[in-house]
Amino acid sequence: MRVLWLGLAFGLLTNCARAGVRESSPASMGDSVSFPPSSIDAPSPTPYPNDFRPTEKLVSKRRAREEVDRMAAFGRITSEAIGPDGGRSPVWTAYERAVAETSPAEQIALARHENPVVRGYFVQLAAVEIPSSMERVYPLLADATPVATQSGCVIRHTSIALLAFDALLPERGDPARSPFLARVASDDKVTFGVRAQALTALATAGHPDANRLARAALASSNEELRGAGIRALGTRPEGGDLERLEGFARSPDAKTRQAAAMGLGSIETRRASELLVPLFTDPDPMVQRAARRAYAANVASDPDKLRLYLQADAETADDMVFGLSRRETELAFDVVESALMENKPRIGLWEVLPFVRGLVKSVGPDAIPRLRKLLGARNENAREAAMYWLSDIGDKGSIPDLRGVLRGGTVHDVEQACHALVKLRAVEAVPDLVELLKHDDPDVRLHVAKALVAFRARSAISALEATVARERGWAKVPLTKALDALKKGEDLKDP
């Protein structure tokens, strides 16, 4: 079983603001998060009854009640570290204290708290840490209450039911997984979103009940469940229902065409690929995206088709690496590597990242030579991803190359190299950083100053003092704060 908020979603934390992802602070996190009715997950017309209660009805200790009420004051469920600087989340702190002050019985009871943030935390805790609570947590699969989550820099919108489903679902390989999915997919009391996810997972696993449940889902008035039924037509053990999917691919309804495209992606035949091609130019962009993604899934192991696909549609290159084997991942990276080195066609950051991440996750430290090569790529996003992952792997052998980036890279390259060198604890780079305090770009001077503070480089105090004295623009205030932090030997909070 897994808990959504325990693991940071993949992403470069230094890119929170650049990627347009909202950053949180204790002040802003207290703001309420509103959703249109049923915008996230639709409730069943005959749901399980759930009796939600206030804190004083669920917890006995005063200190525990205080921490639970503190949790309820925040607007979202978060991971332990949030924001671009990886700061500790205040709601997580309150949650930890509440757990320490409550008994297992109270923790199960708090899964029925009237506040959805509190409920979301304890639904997941009970499901994962207290196996005996499963049948008491299960009815919350009917709770369509919307809630926001923040993992690192990424904010998502979900429902209590979907959080409960994710936490209750046994891991792949667990013999309890398929029976659980079959139970949920056929349960008309849980939310439509949960039933749809269960059906999709069941069909992907080739479970014999998936065909029957898919046929029933096709008659549903709920478009999400109906879409799951259509997608499931492509995962039948005997090769998928190509005839029915072809009809759905021509539907006047965009959601139906989108689901059909996803179903066709599961059928590895020439005819399925041919049916996807007309959807590349569908009037609806979501249908286009689904069709290209589905087509990508069928060409990822064919280097010639993959090369043509990348040239035609570089922006969806990220779809290539999902679920590939090590061999296929390396093959996909071989094809995209030349595009990254020459920046033709240009591939954006969020399309580069899955390739580099997929390579690292598949081959581990064996990826280091290729990552070092990417430091010389013309695509700046490839250079950034390489620096991030080299430092994440802990490749101290790349320190000379990273020092070279400091001396000859772009402003953005220098920023990423500073982060990587700090992560690698490369104190030998301090002289290079001190020299860069004379750079004519204020952004570079500020990134360098932050790195010097992270290194506790007291030898750089006089040079930073001179930089602050010369500064006349907007960077003077944050540089002054960096100087104060360096003198005091403290961490620097982003100004």
UniProtKB/TrEMBL annotation:
Pfam families: HEAT_2
InterPro entries according to UniProt: ARM-like, ARM-type_fold, PBS_lyase_HEAT
Sequence segments annotated as region (Disordered): 23-61
UniProt keyword annotations, A-Z: Signal
Signal peptide range: 1-19
Keyword Iron: no
Residue ranges crossing the lipid bilayer per the database entry: none
Name this protein carries in UniProt: HEAT repeat domain-containing protein
Keyword RNA-binding: no
